[in-house]
Amino acid sequence: MTSDPWQGATTIPALPCEDVDELADFWTALGFDVTYRQLRPNPFVAVRRGSVELQYFGRPGLAPQDSYSTCVVLVDDTVPVFEALAAGLRARYGRLPLDGFPRVTRPRRRANAWRRTGFTLIDPAGNGVRFMRRPAAAQADGTSPATTGERPTDPLARALDDATVHADSHDDPHQAHRILAGALRRAGDASEADRVHALAFLAELAVRTGDPDAARGWLAELEDASAGLDETVAREVVDALAHADELRRDVEGE
Q1: Is the pLDDT of residue 28 over 70?
Q2: Residue 92: strand, helix, or coil
Q3: What residues contact residue 179 under an 8 Å CB cut-off, 6+ apart?
Q4: CA 154, CA 139: separation in Å to the nearest integer?
Q5: What is the pLDDT averaged over residues 45-65?
Q6: Are 178 and 159 in contact (CB under 8 A)?
Q7: H helices of the chain, where?
Q8: What is the 3-state secondary structure (H, E, C) of 23-34?
Q9: What is the 3-state secondary structure (H, E, C) of 9-24?
Q10: Cα separation of 15 and 122, whole Å?
């Protein structure tokens, strides 16, 4: 029997950047190792952490805002991967960068990816490194194509889905803010948990669009909405409230 020539094959993304050393410094601060580097005849660097490898080639004059390169990294669980990268980002920049270059989104379920969780790290060269939960891992909790993965029916919950797609997949936080703010104004009977998640996300989107005053307003609303939550709801929104506390420290310059 002839063996499959594709068995065990590996794909390694090759991404453009202006300065390969800048990317090497960036990724080593996030726990990666440089496995290869050259400047001549062509700038090139390779970094690795575990089984994740990224390669960069130099392209003089490339501005990060002009980059549209991307790649996908599949992992069993996006949350610990995000936390590891976030710790490195906070140590390097003194905060979690949500706008500019680099920047990062948070792990959220993606309606355009069978509601599997994902987040995106935009590197200093403007490349989008998208971390997604592996389909086989997602199948266990009902979010893969092999199961239903159905979207919620509540209008505010659906707006949260739509805002996530626009902000994190399409990189359009302005449109995401418009969608979610409008849905929240109309959501008279939304659940407490959805309201808290929406307000925390709106505060983040305001930061990402360069509007700290709007962020402060959403955070003030969130503080009122989260007062007196029962224990069950409080457990459901604990991550959103922790994220809001970090946003509050950032916008107040603490």
Answers
A1: yes
A2: helix
A3: 159, 162, 163, 166
A4: 23
A5: 96
A6: no
A7: 20-29, 78-93, 135-139, 155-164, 173-186, 192-208, 212-226, 231-236, 238-251
A8: HHHHHHHCCCEE
A9: CCCCCEEEECCHHHHH
A10: 12
90 Cβ neighbours under 8 A, 6+ residues apart:
96
List own/partner pairs for 198-201 with CB under 8 A and 24 or more apart.
Answer: 198/156, 198/159, 198/160, 199/225, 199/244, 200/237, 200/240, 200/241, 200/243, 200/244, 200/247, 201/160, 201/163, 201/164, 201/240
Q: Can you tell me the mean pLDDT for 182-209? A: 94
Contact 142, 149 (CB under 8 A): yes
Which band of pLDDT confidence, cut at 50, 70 and 90, is reported for residue 254? low
- Cα 238 to Cα 233: distance, rounded to the nearest angstrom: 9
Give me the mean pLDDT over the 18-42 stretch: 97
State the pTM of this model. 0.88
Alpha-carbon distance 184 to 180, whole Å? Answer: 6
What residue type is assigned to position 185 of the chain? R
Pull the structure tokens for residue 60: 């003089």
In angstroms, the CA 73 to CA 86 distance is 16
Element (H, E) at 48: strand 44-49
Does the pLDDT at position 31 exceed 90? yes
Tokens 């939960």 — which residue? 133
For 178, the token pair is 């418009």
- HSE-CB for 48 with a 13 A CA cutoff: 8
- Is-contact 161 152, C-beta < 8 A? yes
pLDDT value, residue 113: 82
